[in-house]
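Entry type: protein chain
Record version: 2
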Amino acid sequence: MPGGDTTKSPEHHYQEALFSTWGEILGDTTVAAAMLDRLLHRSVVLNLDGESYRLRNHHEAAEQLRKATTGTPTNLLT
């Protein structure tokens, strides 16, 4: 942040790529390590694992639509 004190303004970011894959994505592990070092300096990294609420709601809505249109739940289609 140009001209700003970055220690007093929290920012929230999320990512879908694991830190370990950044070198492959960027094509240079040294650059990826430097970028992550700058991004994560004074950061707290939370690793969240589990079902996404957004995707869970999407799957529930899709299942209800499927039942309404076909009369057959997903588990009987396989």
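Comment: The chain has a mean pLDDT of 78.
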